Amino acid sequence: AACLERTAVIAPHHAQKREIRRALNDAFPKASSLVLVDTVDKLQGQERDLVVTCYAFAASQARREPAFVFSR
């Protein structure tokens, strides 16, 4: 549990934050509340041992630049 308390997930948008929180709650109901999930603005200046970042792009961008979206 101590590791989870030092973990953060950063999402660029509030809607993504809500979806990530929902997914964590569904997958790990007892542990999900220990992981901090928030936007860059809210987490700025804080320290965590593990940080997971989430990125987003518009569907219209994916249609214009599919090679970028699917590149590894």
The shape is globular
Terminal CA distance reads 32 Å
Number of strands: 3
Estimate percent helicity.
40-55%
Strand percentage lies at 15-25%
SS class: alpha/beta
- CA-atom Rg in angstroms: 14 Å
Main β sheet profile = 3 strands, parallel
Q: What is the number of helices?
A: 5
Q: What are the segments in which pLDDT stays under 50 over at least 5 consecutive residues? A: none
* Helix-strand pattern: HEHEHEHH
Strand order in the sheet with the most strands: 2-1-3
Mean pLDDT: 83
Describe this structure in words.
This protein is an alpha/beta fold. The chain is built from five helices and three strands. The chain has a three-stranded parallel beta sheet with strand order 2-1-3. Helix 2 links the parallel strand 1 (7-11) and strand 2. The protein is globular, with a radius of gyration of 14 Å.
